[in-house]
Protein 1
Amino acid sequence: MNLALWIATGLLAAVSLTGGITKTFIPRERLAAIKGGEWTGHASVGFIKTIGVLELLAAVGLILPAVLNIAPFMVPVTAVCWVLLMVGAVIIHVRLDQFKLVMVNLGYVALAAFIAWGRFGPEPFSG
């Protein structure tokens, strides 16, 4: 179970890091032109950058607390925050009739919920 949780956490951190870098450093106009990024054309630059920074923080919060054994309880807390962020993403993609992206985001919700459940429940970090 611990290995499965680490794999899930690594995957979610990679997704979060990629999305965070993209939203933080790529101009809105380029994001809006990418398939799946159309929503950015309707959002302010500040909102997009804020989401990007939150995703970067999530990538850090999913990995570093456990690896460094400094406040490892932050891993499942970060996973819960990721669920909330992805619920917002699902709402946006539903409004834009982007069914495939809704399903992708629901997959991320499931992954984050698994991490939160596992680390709050049967496989917490000791220490």
Note: The chain is about 75% helix and 0% strand.
Protein 2
Amino acid sequence: MGIRRITRHLVQHHWRAKVVFTPRVLDRVEQAIKRSETMHSGQVRFVVEGALDGAALFRNQPARERALDVFSHLRIWDTAHNNGVLIYLLLADRDVEIVADRGIDAKVGAAGWEKICRDMEADFRAGRFEHGVIKGIEAVSRELARHFPPRGPHPNELPDKPVVM
């Protein structure tokens, strides 16, 4: 566990997510998710966490492990076609993780998700958070549309509203 990481998480903490992801930005992200879900029968969630705290921080929990916890907690795995996808941003680390349910993950694979994450992180390093998130949602949606095209009306199984933790 590095002192730099601990300091970054303690200093930036949760206020940073609220500064970067204002209500207006969150609304645009929500609208991007709504638009994307008209192109496929999958489900997309976006979660931004400002920083880790408590046990997670002092255990040096990696962003991937935290994203798996969030995926489970939000029950993103609980979709009819096993095609829920979480885009998780740990802002203090500027680390993006995509966790996909088994129905879509088997089709896209780790390398496909990793490319989307790295593209988003490049935008974040340049300070383009909103652009990076929306671009990531669009990239995830292209994968979902290719493997889970819309087939008639389908229910919105998960909320489209982004989560700020």
Note: The chain is about 55% helix and 15% strand.
Protein 3
Amino acid sequence: MKKIINTSKAPAPIGPYNQAVLSGNTLYTSGQIAINPETGELVLDDIKTETKQVMENMKAVLNEAGMSFENVIKTSIFISDMHNFAAINEVYATYFDDANAPARETVEVANLPKFVNVEISMIAVKA
């Protein structure tokens, strides 16, 4: 059985999907982009600030499901320019312990929703 996870502390979906779905002990998140949930505005000041907003949105979704970044086993990062990889990775790394970091792929794509620079989704498991 699945449980829908939604929180006002992360941006509302911009399409026919939910922020996350919990199936058993496994949480599947939708991709998060850098929308400030309080204002509904995009945070595109620079790639590091944008990435931080994405990660904070993801943190809110994880918390709503009773999880944290420690529960994350897999992430997918979609970026519009691979030249931003190092800066994105620098911010991303502050949310994970190197020894227990999740599996991950990072893919450059032609476009992302609202033409942002980064989108991140995760899979987490509650032990």
Note: The chain has one domain: 2-125.
